[in-house]
Write a structure and sequence with these properties.
mainly alpha, Endonuclease III, domain 1
């Protein structure tokens, strides 16, 4: 609440200074400094608030596929069993773990689940799956993969799809 009052006071000060005769940019330097300071404070508060948020998997109901109201879209739960399921695909991606964080962040690769499931279900071949994985590693995760990594993983994913047939 104190911050809102301070922002309002700083804004009123800016308007008052800008309306004076002989107003110049140099006379507004103090306001610019305060604006930069408050922007920094706001950014740090947002960062701290973001860190206090529960993880994506916790918000999703711990892997059940259920999403509490108001927390956004999540794919419907896939059928259980063997073959091409969200659970099995997540397990394979976490075993592959190209950035080495799956033990600490088990939902790190969830961004690839829906695109991979879609490609596999429509019958994409190993080369197409490998191209998708390579693009994700480079453009999304910022890695330079060894050429055989995406191809080997694509082979495992196509084999998973074959179990489903």
């Amino acid at each position: 609440m104190w911050a809102a009052r301070l922002f309002a006071t700083a804004g009123a000060s800016f308007i008052a200074q800008a309306g004076k005769d002989g107003a110049s940019l140099t006379s507004l330097a103090g306001y610019a400094f305060l604006g930069g300071f408050f922007f920094l404070v706001s950014a740090l508060r947002l960062r701290d608030e973001h860190r206090r948020q529960p993880s994506r998997s916790a918000r999703r109901g711990r892997g059940t596929g259920a999403v509490p109201a108001g927390l956004g879209w999540h794919p419907a739960p896939m059928r259980t069993g063997t073959g091409l399921t969200e659970k099995n695909l997540r397990r394979l991606l976490n075993e592959w773990d190209p950035i080495g964080v799956a033990d600490d962040v088990p939902d790190e690769y969830d961004c690839m689940l829906a695109p991979l499931l879609g490609r596999l279900r429509r019958g994409a071949d190993q080369a197409e799956i490998a191209d998708f994985l390579r693009t994700e590693l480079v453009e999304h995760f910022g890695l330079t993969p060894v050429p055989s990594q995406p191809e080997a993983m694509a082979g495992r994913l196509v084999a998973l799809k074959a179990e489903d047939a």
